[in-house]
Queue: 2 jobs
Job 1
Amino acid sequence: MSDNLLKDPYNIIITGVGGQGNVMASRLLGNMLVGRGYYVTIGETFGASQRGGSVMSHMRISKKSIWSPQIPEYKADLIIAIEPVEGIRVLARYGNPAVKLLCNSHPVYPSSVIRGETGYPSPEKIESSVRDLAPDTTFMNATEKAVSLGNSILAGIVLLGTACGAGVLPLDREDFHETIVNRLENQQVELNMKAFDMGFRLLKN
Amino acid sequence: MSYLTDNQNNDYLLMGNEAIARGALEGGVNVASGYPGTPSSEIIEALSSVAKERNLYVEWSINEKVALEVAASASFAGLRTMCVMKQNGVNVASDFLLHLASSGTRGGMVLVACDDPGALSSVNEGESRPFARLVEIPLLEPGDFQEAKDITKWAFELSEEIRNIVMIRSVTRMSHASGNVRYERLPDTNAKADFRFDGPLSDPETGPVISMVVGISELQHVPQQEKIKKAAEIFEDCPFNTYEGPEKPELLIITSSACTLYSREAISLLNVKDRVGILKLATTWPLPPRLIKKYLSVTDRILVVEEVLPILEENIKILAAEMAHEIGPKTFYGKNAGNIPSVGELNPDIVVSALSTILDVRVESVSESFVKEAAALIETGIPVRGLTMCPGCPHRASLWSIHNALEMDGRKGFVCGDIGCYVAGLWPGGFNTVKTLHSMGSGSGIAGGFGKLRQFGMDQPVLSICGDSTFFHAAMPALANAIHHKSPFTMIILDNRGAAMTGFQPHPGTPVNAMGEAVPSLDIAEICRAMGATVEIRNPFDIEETQQTLHHLIEHQEGTKVLILSQACALSPERKDNPKYRMKVDEEICIGGNCGCNRLCTRIFGCPGLLWDEEKGVSKINDIMCTGCGVCADICPAGAIKREEVAEYVG
Amino acid sequence: MNISGPNELLENVINRNLCTGCGACVDLCPYFKSYRGKTTMLFPCTLPQGRCFAYCPRLEVDLDYLSGKYFEKPYNSDPLGFYKSIVTSRASEKFTGNSFQAGGTVSAIMYFALERGYIDGAVLTGQEGILPTPRIVMNPEDVLSCGSSKYTAAPTLSAVNRAIEEGLNRIGIVSTPCQALSTAMLRANPLEEKDFTDPVGLVVGIFCTWALDFRAFEPFIASRVDINTITKTDIPPPPAEVMEVYTSDGSKLQIPLEEIRNLVPDACSYCMDMTSEFSDISVGVLEGDPGRNTLIIRTERGKMIVDEAVREGYLIVDDMPEINLEHLKWAAGNKKKKALLKAHKEGMVNNPGKDKISYIRLNNETLEEIIA
């Protein structure tokens, strides 16, 4: 973990598709950081966007103040993508060459793809185009890991673990544990901890 | 115990709506009511979760007008009370609101209206702020999450001081955003309700509560205007109106609500702290004239940043015109000058662009090549993600049958749509069946009107759809009207057992209330029958039977008929993680893209629980998405989609 | 052959009101459906080629090809098409007590063919109220309940499509001329499907001058009589010029054919075929004799089954009076000429290439002879 913020404000976007646990992930991460004494601002869209639409949580972490709940274009420092195409969408609007991208490789097909009106880019295409824009990108099949624990919704937690293990956030495994003990039902704590650890180890030095 | 009722001196990460709820708790609220609507719903949800603990009465009312009436009664009896709704709801409540603003209130009463700039989760981009001016009540707009709490608490005091309802306006980026909030102590909860009415008619504390006596406008309207003047006076010293920036800025931004945060960010990005000041107003109606004058005097150039219409801008211009002889001429930037769009929500980038032009400065950003490459990637490689219904959604099955029945009938029948997830009926995902869409309940009102156009030679079959919550909210009068006037149309009630779109809030048809207590549930079918409609009830997952019923209803066009398509939402607690069937595609049988099918299940039906295997040329089940409703097995022309009952299914 | 797909079918047939509602495209796939006599496309289909187009008797009908296939000759100008013999016929006394239209020849033959296994199922047209409804019949006795004439178009061939789907492979079909034509097109395997086998065992064509649009006929008749009381409708053979509607209270309504003809869809005016030329046998009324039929035997198979039915005592045949034959030829020739002339004038015949779809193709010699 880093002792301080790498930047102030440090800008994180968690993105995915409605129903992937985006809001849950941003909430848990936010609570961990508030617990560490930071100002956290989260902006998110939900409601109609839950219905198979793109969702984004914009997070601003600061020692000094609240920030805008919408991150300016090209100003994200860390993007956590629970869905690869959504990762690209966010990267193109909010990314920059220095951004760190953690990307689930498991696709959720938009209705236009299911209907056959448009194609979905191949894993190779996704990987190459993403790396062109953001060299610091890590792909993983977080959904597969989550399904191995019994529920695909844990993919966001796996990625959260990876983010915390990657040393870019002033957070440790214990922060997560403390937060979920306070926020989740008892029987969910162990499962979420397992998912978190699966991701945590991935980029841990 | 909920974190909403902690009494510790810590920072909490609260959603704006939770902060408003906490503010209400700190303000000693006793009664809260509302009707669900994005982005407002979490306020009542938060309060209902602590209702027992805090001795509150919280209800999800049948609609916003009734909600406001329920909340008002508590005020009349001396309690503190809050009513919550989305912007569109204020339109519904506005009839009573006008009367209430005239009669005045007793216990502190706060109306929270949550607007949705950009219509992220709405069918339109309405504004609730003009109502404050229209009905002459104070309007407060918090500029961050801490203020969302603090201003709510203060609003109750303000209401009691001026003896009238106070309106708080939030927006999506405030209500659905989160940030640090530090708590104050919660008050004791031992309020007693007592409605006093023995005093003279004109006594605001002890007389009957009435809005206006015909022809005697002085009785209420004069005191009402005194109240708003008093509010303006109080606003002169309101601690939530703040200024930050140089003493004599080149440009003054006047802003409120979430736009405050965008403006600050833009100033920081452009590094123009020394040139631009921000007057952040929490009291946007009535504007405190002395305060405005003070800040208009520090500069000649003013940019007003607000969402959505130029309401603040115009009110400030009125004051500036009145004061022109004292403060001199000013140059205004904003919506009328075209610096800020008057459609859609704002963000820091929009304010950056406005400031760049006005101040002739440039922002440092990524390289041109990055921008180009990123844009190219989006344009060429990335599929759009349109809204669709969830996997296993009963509306998909309902709209499928409705579409097919209308097409086969062939007389250009159509559906008048309504507010709910079934707005997807407008799009290919809902088979383009919906042809009108307006406000809550209006689909059935419009359909009732179309039905009467037989007189003018219109023989197109007319259907309306509405959800169960929408039925109670505003469609019941439309149905009664149609039956009374013998309008031939079929109202289809898509009963998915709760206000699903906003998160399964209860309504009069559900057996529990907002506080989780058992309550009588009103039977929609019986209500319709009592009104005189013929009523059929079908399970939309039974495609064959539903379609036959629809054929019958569409073919026999006499009278007003009701078809209830009853099936729980795929996200509902009863169906979530409880699949009825395990689905499988037999690849040997699947016709795929060939003549005889041409990918009906994926290309047309389009349930996200299905996938198209390009390589094999067959359909597949997406096991992660599929909810096991089994409907695709019935639409498959080859019988290739198989369903197997899940032993653990709880029916 | 120029075979296109559903979009061309929609554009050239359904949207131009040329659809006869025969049911050839219905239930082949989930897209084409028939409801109350009207064929509709529910959703767009993107295929460039489809059976819907290939089987449609209103598109790219190559009469020479079909004649060659079934009668081993190019199409000629005979008003009655190719045939071996023409006789009069009626159901034998075996069927006494059943109510038939005219001589009951169709019912007797289908009954016999089903009973003896010449066919493994019969596709007929039953009735729900006054709506004619396709039926797949497996039991000979059930044939008898379908034995009445229907004067509105029915998507009977949709039942053939279902019967094929169910695995029947010697299907007996009672068809109108357009349906017989479509059936011939289906049997020719126009899309050259690899594992195709001819699913048809016998085609009994019926004479037809037109079939009413159900959606026009229903309100027409409903304005004259309570539909629920109708027991039978009949158009007696010429020279009578009326439709007779019998009701349960024993009364009989007579509607002049002049009024009825207003309800004939435009689609029928393009039909060249009065006697179901592409069937094994064709059956119609016999002028001046409501108790007997005209029976045209066209193919070897038709002849064999008729001969058997006569030998086994199911069917009674007699010579065709010359005067009746003359009148029949005149009527059929008249229909053929009018229809082909109309189609020709409207540019629907023998268009070269794929750019413009032809309704019908036939050799120029025959074309000239017919429209001369």
Job 2
Amino acid sequence: MAIDVVRDQRTQVNDFAIKLANVNGTGSASANSLLMQAIFRMGIPVSGKNLFPSNIQGLPTWYEIRVNRTGYTARALDYDLVVAMNSQTYAQDIADVRHGGYVIYDSSWPLDPDLSRDDVTFLGIPLAKMCLENFKAPRERILMKNIAYAGAVVALVGIDVELVADLLAETFARNEALRDSNQRALRLGYDFAMEHLRCPLPFYVERMEANGTSILINGNLAAALGCLYAGATVAGWYPITPATAVMDNFIQLCARYRRETVVSEDPNVPDTTRNNYLIIQAEDEIASIGMVLGAGWNGARAFTSTSGPGISLMNELLGLAYYTEIPAVIIDVQRTGPSTGMPTRTQQADIMMCAYASHGDTKHIVVFPANPYECFEFAVQAFDLAERFQTPVFMLSDLDIGMNDWVVPELRWDDAYVWDRGPVLSDEDLSRMSEFFRYNSANDDFVAARTLPGSDEKGAYFIRGSGHDKYGHYTENPPEYQEVVDRLKKKHAASAAHVPAPVIERRDGAAIGVITIGSCDLAVREALDQLADAGLPADFLRVRGFPFVAEVRAFVEEHEHCFVVEQNRDAQLRSLISIETGVGIETMHPVLAYGGFPLSAQQVVDSVLAKLEN
Amino acid sequence: MPSITKPLIPLSPLPKNDLGLTIRDYEGQMSTLCAGCGHDSVTAAIVHAFWELSTPPHMIAKLSGIGCSSKTPTYFVRGAHGFNSAHGRMVPIATGAIAANRELTYIGISGDGDSLSIGLGHLMHGIRRNVKMVYIIENNGVYGLTKGQMSASADIGSRPKKGEANALAPIDPVTTALSLGATFIARSFSGDKEQLVPIVKAAIAHNGFALIDVISPCVTFNDHEGSTKSYKFMRDHEVKEVQTDFVPIRAEIRAKIPADDAIEVTMHDGSVVHFRSVPEGYDPHDRMKVEEYIRDRQSRGEIVTGLLYVDESAKELHELNATPTSALAKVPYSSLCPGAEALASMQEDFR
């Protein structure tokens, strides 16, 4: 069976993809996101994906904008328009344009005739020349080229130029000189295109009302907001791409929302500020998680944010937290491994590591957001889960979610929210007890009430990562040791009912099932629509939490063929489902994309069809 | 069974501290270390110091890493809250705990393996952040629990019980801490309780990271001829020229101490450290001079003990971060969550 997804030229209103090829460090990022934001403001579903190198200046970088009126905003692989601003990658970028597409290039210099293609239209704009003539400072001449090509794109795809001018005015509200240069550059590109080129192209935008109250936000900011709203007060962290912005944002949010002024009673003493938070940039990730454990032991909501290499380093203390039952939240913004891997590329390859982090028998609670909206919600839930189950909880985001701006529904907060601190004994509780032992009073979730340091002597106990019995005392006795670790296993299993439930969507006549996770969501949904249109409806399940609920196993068993779509080489989700639910692995076919770029629907459709044809 | 509950035998009236507690109330379980281990003497000094200061046991948090030294927190203040963590990782855990609740008194017990090898980076950064805690290194130059490997504090030429003499330069926690800007540095000898108790008390009063390097001989693996961390070596080479007394805030006995050439340091809580005797030209506030003096003595094969350096003016972690004066962990949720309205209004900027 083969499906041709043919693009209808006449219906290319609000349905196209642009690839902008730039040189890293030249200021292109702001011009590119300006275009994306303008389209968002026109009410049209849009996505912007930054495909950038692990480099400060000089290497190739791309930005992809996908406009889609139906809301298919996963990465597209066929580009209607390529803005080729990087001579190093001309050949590849020009090759990437779809048949019948367009290329914008800087015609200040002639284009190498070898790069020419008969089936695409080349639109030359003398960007360098225009900027040389219009701007004086060398740096400005480079920077403004970006805004100038953005201006040309605005004209070519019919973006409201006044709206873009407003955006620039907002961005540079406090810098008149920059605002002026940017406005001039925008008009240079825009006017050139309007005068010399056919505007609009056969694909263009028209205002819609699809975005409603939606917002444009990246997952790292959303996760930081979640931590703020969850009431996290202590954070330990170490800089790492692509997770750094989680803490950068948390620091900024705390400075804005957690800082109180303490009015001095003495007129000679100035007022002071009081910070209801303490964020420590640690010496490494081991220290980061150590700080989180110390704070969690003491009853503060504490977290760290990191990426795969950081989790590798944290493994030892994660086992300590698991075994001694200390709440902790770890946000892992996954990048491409193994080892240093590709730090600026995305992947979902920390699933196994996080599920079983540390030596010995360990199992952790993991939540898997698919977009920034869920980053916010799941971050709050992660703190509740961590305290309710007195254990580390991972939130597995990834670079695509964390660092790209996504259109998601407005974040909502319920002021009636009450944080779940889990079973904690107060001095009053202790006074009613004849004696206290740390691990011997498990509740229905197999969680034993704890005391916090500073509580009455009766509640004092000694935390130890060494073998302990249910009283918290050191032991080397097999049954006493096993009793504790067996309870930990039951506790982990009990948390399945409290982690975010899987999203399950069924279609009439579906013969196959597709299981996915995290940021694959949009691409898989689009792929499923394409398969259904081609007469192959499929049921959908997106895992959102570990341990798995029974529905996950049932879903696999219901379908003769299941496809498990994930972004890693080793089909980690598929293995984890099989290991943990006991369901056979044979009927789960891996669909894997692990090159480091976000998934596209086409990859899913191709893989599914290839398997079914065999 | 590696921990043995100490029988509480009521002895004829033991003196009571301000809280009405006897010294037995500050003890812990029976030590399971080797008979004669220097660490047990350090434990005794800690018990004494807390008892004398009348620190409420439940307001003490005692932490450790892994090793013989790290077992000792079970042997003191049974009513304190304890955390035996992972090898070398006590400082970050203590740092996080202190961040969350500054109301407790924190004491960390470590050894030379825990502090100077696997945990050296963390120790340095704990010093650098000036986390308010007492940090005791029970330093015996040897890995006891794994049966006698030389540690990073072993002196050149120091001989293990079996094998070759150590050829690598030792890491000296005292001079290292001086170079890192530590705000309280002391060295003592486990065999000298008289010196150790006031040092521990001053460390508890210190407003920042208080490092005490205690030479604490290992009777099983490193107390022989040829070891520089043995009882005999210490007794022959210890120099006690820097002598201090600690005067708690409540005791108004300052006048009783002759004030001629003595140096007084008023601690953050108002208590006083009194340098009753120091060598000529020695200034416990002058990092350079202290280091010069220690190195000079070191070059003569001597080990200087005493409270060697103190700086009570530096800000500790919480002061540096302008956190509330009470525990961060107790800040009510209503002060932490900006609420639905703030979330809605901030999203105006996300469109």
